[in-house]
Amino acid sequence: MPDFQLSDDEKDVLIAVHQAGDADVYHLAAAVGAGPRQVQDLVRGLDGAGLVIVSERGDCIACTPAGEDHARRLQRQ
Fold first, then answer.
1. Closest C-alpha to 25, from 13, 14, 36, 10
2. Given this model, what pLDDT does residue 2 score?
3. Is 1 a residue whose pLDDT tops 60?
4. Is the CB of residue 64 less than 8 Å from the CB of residue 53?
5. Is 4 exposed, middle or buried (0-12, 13-18, 19+ CB in 10 A)?
6. C-alpha distances out from residue 33 to 5, 25, 47, 56, Å
7. pLDDT tens digits, 35-69
8. Spatial distance between the Cα atoms of 71 and 65, rounded to a whole number of angstroms
């Protein structure tokens, strides 16, 4: 299993996406208590790491299988 080096904020967003199933930036911002722009930047990083996938229009964010696995590991910690 890859060892993803995520910030606490990235971990919070990944877990929020995992729990929601799929979400938009505003839903995630409310879930983690951050602004939409900050969440958007965090999602970009998670997307680049292959943990989430963002729809073409950017209105739907969901975990990849690797993201699901990593979110479950984070929740068990």
1. 36
2. 67
3. no
4. yes
5. middle
6. 21, 12, 20, 25
7. 999 999 999 999 999 999 999 887 899 999 999 99
8. 10
Q: Give the confidence band of 8 by pLDDT, cuts at 50, 70, 90.
A: very high
- The 3-class SS string of 25-74 reads HHHHHHHHCCCHHHHHHHHHHHHHCCCEEECCCCCCEEECHHHHHHHHHH
* Three-class SS state of 18: helix
Residue pointed to by tokens 């990849």: 64
* CB-CB contact of 32 with 16 (8 Å): yes
Q: Six-digit token pair at 57?
A: 């229009």
Does the pLDDT at position 10 exceed 90? Answer: yes
Digit-coded pLDDT (tens) for 19-38: 999 899 999 999 999 999 99
